[in-house]
Write a structure and sequence with these properties.
This protein is α/β, with parallel strands linked by helices and 355 residues long. The protein has 16 helices and 13 strands. Helices cover 43% and strands 14% of the residues. α1 packs across α9 and α3 runs parallel beside α6. The longest helix is centred in the N-terminal third of the chain and has 20 residues. It is globular and about 60 Å long.
Length: 355
């Protein structure tokens, strides 16, 4: 059977890396995004708005995928709005494909907020989860758009007879400009501004994050797990955590990031120092750097998502993940976290995103 993939969110960090992995493995690969044209060799680009059912059906009229990978989401002002919008996106997409009866498997990418709560809810609720985070831990009682996305997939699977997998990465490290949750690029931009202005690279987070253990997810490892789950019968109808396979402490990785950029650093000094506040008003600095170094992206908001980096690094607990479900079934991909960051920084420099 020909393997035909539809990557929803192909212009984002996860979707872009997944599309590359699928094409490299010989899949016929369609990439759906709302507005971006993706010049990736071998990718069949589709533009459609997931919130416009009629336009979506029209865009997918000639597409008959065997596997669908949902890697995108939309941020709204409240979690209830997040739930309504992101559930509708999943529902509209699967409804548009239902009559084709070609879909065999759907992979959904969510994240660790499945266990931690939506964005900063775990900070204010007073209820902190046990770590390492384990796939069998139950849903929280608080509203969460990840749960709504899952429920839409489960309902469509019951209706249409396909299998599913859910993938819960920690902070994803990879190359994508304009991504809503991009710690790697945000730190690279912050470090570049520090170097430009002779400022110290100040850790913005909590004592628990500075001293505690953590892990992250390389976008390539996530892509490999998505493809593995789609092709492994034993992995059907299962949720999987996914991380690099190593752990680190920010108290030594922060220093190494500073050394990569050849700048001075300041660690945790008794209080959280939000990066949003540190980078406030730095748009003009960035515009000057764009002109001086011929950088490719002048929109500061597209290269910096400080709000999300602050949420990750201000957590009051150390956070790392257990990967029992996929490890027991034979998924053993691994990435060195130090190199995940350094390879990204080198690529950003080569692409003229940072000087």
């Amino acid at each position: 059977m020909e393997k035909i993939a539809l990557v929803v969110g192909s212009s984002g960090m996860t979707g872009n890396n997944l599309a590359k992995e699928l094409i490299a493995q010989g899949w016929k690969t369609y990439g759906l995004s709302r507005s971006s044209k993706n010049p990736m060799k071998g990718l069949i680009d589709i533009q459609a708005d997931l919130l416009n059912p009629s336009a979506l059906r029209e865009a997918l009229a000639d597409v008959r995928p065997t596997h669908v990978f949902l890697t995108t989401w939309m941020r709204r002002n409240t979690e209830q709005e997040n739930i309504q919008t992101n559930a509708a996106m999943v529902r509209n997409l699967l409804d548009a494909l239902a009559t084709k009866q070609t879909v065999k498997h759907v992979g959904l990418v969510t994240g660790l907020k499945h266990y931690l709560g939506p964005f900063d809810a775990y900070v204010t609720s007073g209820v902190l989860p046990e770590t390492p985070l384990r796939e069998e831990q139950p849903r929280l009682s608080s509203p969460n758009f990840y749960y709504a996305q899952e429920d839409e997939v489960y309902a469509a699977a019951d209706r249409d007879g396909f299998t599913w997998s859910v993938h819960r990465p920690h902070t994803v490290i990879g190359n994508a400009v304009g991504n809503l949750m991009n710690m790697g690029t945000t730190l690279a931009v912050y470090a570049s501004i520090c170097k430009e202005r002779g400022l110290p690279f100040v850790f913005p987070g909590s004592e628990a994050q500075w001293n505690g253990l953590s892990d992250v997810t390389d976008a390539q490892v996530l892509a490999q797990q998505l493809v593995w789950a789609a092709e492994t019968p034993e992995a059907a109808n299962t949720a999987f955590n996914v991380a690099n396979g190593d752990v680190f402490r920010w108290r030594w990785l922060w220093k190494e990031v500073a050394q990569w950029f050849d700048i001075e650093y300041v660690g945790y000094e008794g209080e959280i120092k939000p990066l949003v506040k540190t980078l406030e008003g730095k748009e003009q600095v960035w515009k000057e750097m764009v002109l001086r170094y011929g950088l490719a992206e002048a929109d500061f908001d597209k290269v910096s998502s400080a709000w999300h980096t602050d949420l990750d690094l201000s957590r009051p607990i150390e956070v790392m993940t257990d990967m029992t479900n996929s490890r027991m079934l034979g998924f053993h991909a691994y990435a060195n976290t130090r190199m995940s960051f350094f390879n990204l920084f080198a690529q950003l420099r080569a692409d003229k995103i940072i000087p």
